[in-house]
Amino acid sequence: MNNILKRFLRTKRLRVALFLVSYSICCSLALADTSWTHDFANEVRQEAKKRNIPGFVFVVVEKGKPAKFYTYGKTESRGEAITNETVFRLASVSKTFTAALIAAENPLATTLAWQTPLSEITPEYNFDKYPEKPLLLRHVIGQSTGFMPNAYDNLIEANYQRKRVLDEFQELEPLCQPGYCYTYQNALFGVIEEHYENRDSSYAKQIQAKLFEPLGINASVGRKALESSQSWAKPHAAIARNKWAKVRVKDDYYRFSPAAGINASAKDMEIWIRAMLLEYPDVIREEMVMEMTLPRVQTKNELRRRFWRDHLRSAHYGLGWRIYDFKGKRVNYHGGWVQGYRADVSFSPELGIGFAFLMNAESNLINEVTANFWDQAIQ
């Protein structure tokens, strides 16, 4: 081992060690005050009314205290009022669950682990372009595969079958070696579903057994599960400024469920946030959360996000989570967007609070609301 490599490894180990120490320290600090959220909710409702948003629900979770739910609107124009049990599509927020599923399995290494090469997960496909640097599962979950961002999302949205999309992916040439740059993907998450199906199981069965049931979450996977929910928010797309029309639920991204296939209510998201805040240590262990939220690749484009850019000092992607330095405080975040729905989830281990916003319209109001929430939470 040459001296340069030795120095690199020492630096990397030091960075990980410092992160673990800072994480433990921040989680022991005093929790934040959220008494202002009632007025905040009324402001959000007023803005939603101006924009004719069909409906939304958001939840504020303060560690060790009852959650606060705030609702607005209906599941559709003549539908029922949205409640904390109304089910929405999570879209890419699903990636936070997928990361936790892999994190839970990783110590056992009986099925999937962070270091498992894709050539072992789905040997029928060949995505490797660098023999000395194989593509690993952590590169997929950590959005650092090196391939062009959002590659073949257009094929997913054109309703191509998963196998055909992955076949096309084999022909791509990467922009960088795996692990060296941030390149956001959805299609490559399909290898996880392929892996389970090849073993007579499914992503839905695995996540139900290993996360949903142990946590007591009523979340589900797939279009049929969404539409069979007792109460579910119908999707709405914009047809003009501040005008929305109900659209049908599409199967496209549900074929890539590990990327964007989970459905959940605000009540489910309360439990999910509490799990991230370590209130369910038998299911979501502290080392799992630390591993998922360790900054791995820079996401400089996030620093230019409208409503966020005045507050962010740094932005990275971990494993299924974005990691922001928001006005000097750590906020772990992920958003989701599919036709007719938007979703956000975020939490601060330092402040001991979390926030999730679910909406049945493709409105950018969600960006403003989530950024404003953390701006007020972090004083």
Summarize the structure.
The chain has 379 residues and is α+β, with helices and mostly antiparallel strands.
Describe this protein's structure:
With 379 residues, this protein is α+β, with helices and mostly antiparallel strands. It has 2 domains: 31-103 and 202-377, Beta-lactamase, CATH 3.40.710; 112-197, no CATH class. Helices cover 35% and strands 18% of the residues. The protein has 14 helices and 13 strands. The chain has an 8-stranded antiparallel β-sheet, sandwiched between helices. Strands 3-7-4 form a 3-stranded antiparallel β-sheet. A two-stranded antiparallel ribbon has the order 5-6. A hairpin with a 2-residue loop joins strand 5 (236-240) and strand 6 (243-246). It is globular, with a radius of gyration of 20 Å.
Q: How is the topology of this model organized?
A:
Elements: H1 3-26, H2 37-50, E1 55-62, E2 68-73, E3 87-89, H3 94-105, H4 118-121, H5 137-141, H6 153-157, H7 162-169, H8 190-197, H9 203-215, E4 220-221, H10 223-227, E5 236-240, E6 243-246, H11 257-260, E7 262-265, H12 266-276, H13 286-292, E8 297-298, E9 312-317, E10 322-326, E11 329-338, E12 341-348, E13 353-359, H14 365-377
Helix pairs in contact: 3-9, 3-13
